[in-house]
Amino acid sequence: MTPTPAHSNLAGEWHEARLLYPLYVALAREFVIDMPSAGDLEAGIETPPQESVEHAREWFQDMDQRIQVHQLRQFLQTTSLITDEALRSLLVHHLHKSPPADADRDKVDFLLVQYFSHCAPSRLEDNDVDMEYVAQVLEPVLGNVDLTVPDWLKPLEELIQAANRCQSLNELLTSSILDKGRKLKVTAAKNYYQAVAMVGFTRFSFLMRRVFFRLMHQDLNAILDGLRLLEQRGVSTLDCRRAQFGADEPTVRLRMICQSWKVMFHAEYSSGQPLRMLVDLRSVVDSALTRSAKGKTGTGSRAHAAAAGNHGSSTSAAEFEVSGSSSQDEQA
Fold first, then answer.
1. Which of 3, 56, 127, 197 has the fewest Cβ atoms within 10 Å of its own Cβ atom?
2. Could you read off the pLDDT of 63-109 as tens digits, one per residue?
3. Are strands 237-238 and 302-303 parallel, antiparallel or unpaired?
4. Closest CA to 113 of 226, 233, 219, 203
């Protein structure tokens, strides 16, 4: 089935426009986006003439071109303005772009996962996130979905299983799992908008988020545990140049940084550079633990982890980008 049809009457379209307008205003304010005049939308008119509805339609088209995917992602994951109805309207609005550009697909892809996450119970088990359940949650926007999975979409299940076998964030980021999911989405072209495909990609991205955060917190805890053990062995500083810190970085400061990362990484939109630093710091601490256990830490007050070589990947994938700029984020 195709997504729920857009409003065929002006009153319905105006209702949706008034619902979305505060979100767009807040988003433009947060990212200092030059916002054109919105006419009767700004004035809060309840029953506008047809020309006002048409002007609003053009206004949203203009704003959609100005708003980048990473900005939409960051805003929706931090704003208190979002409601089930507003999120549904925003998703339906982007689903009916014609013809959709790559950026529109990426926004739809993110919004589908965000809508599912918003509606699904917080204690939902991974095993319960099957195609049937995802389709049920997305039914208000996609309608009744035929869940016959086409052959080209079936690799998603293999990628999910591979991700579940990853033991560290670095293993996930260097496994090409996220890149393969992204490539499958891009090569799908217009087939991405098949309802069953949107259900499949929503399930994939939702489960990838869960794997990502599980491994991220696992790495943070491993670093903190490792730092405590090193301190018990008399190690007070580490050579952390590999992780873009100092050559004599105090372990006490590293523990404070990891605690702050636990807060910062709570948001999926976290920029790539801190993720890279997290992966490399895990490598530094693991190397220092190995060296100290073998009695090769020199004076015992300092552990120098190998700074040469790169650990991890600079490949970007979804919210989980490892390279530098968050403005280059791509949805997995």
1. 127
2. 999 999 989 988 888 888 888 888 899 999 999 888 888 889 999 99
3. parallel
4. 203
pLDDT digits (tens, 9 = 90+) for 11-33: 888 888 888 998 999 999 999 99
| Contact assessment for residue 116 and residue 137, using Cβ atoms and an 8 Å cutoff | yes
Q: Which amino acid is at 267?
A: A
Letter string b/e over residues 217-251, b meaning 16 or more CB atoms within 10 A of that residue's CB: eebbebbbebbeebeeeebebbbbbbbebeeebeb
Burial of 162 (0-12, 13-18, 19+ CB in 10 A): middle
pLDDT above 80: residue 303: no
Contact 312, 325 (CB under 8 A): no
Cβ neighbours of residue 248 closer than 8 Å, sequence gap 6 or more: 237, 238, 239, 302
Tokens for 120?
């699904």
Nearest alpha carbon to residue 105 among 21, 224, 185, 200: 185
**Residue 282: which region, alpha, beta or left (left: phi > 0; alpha: psi -120 to 50)?**
alpha
Instruction: Judge residue 310's burial from the number of C-beta atoms within 10 Å of its C-beta, 0-12 exposed, 13-18 middle, 19 or more buried.
Output: exposed
Query: What angle, 0 to 180 degrees and rounded to 10, lies between the N-to-C axes of helices 131-142 and 195-232?
Result: 120
Tokens at residue 151, please? 């052959």
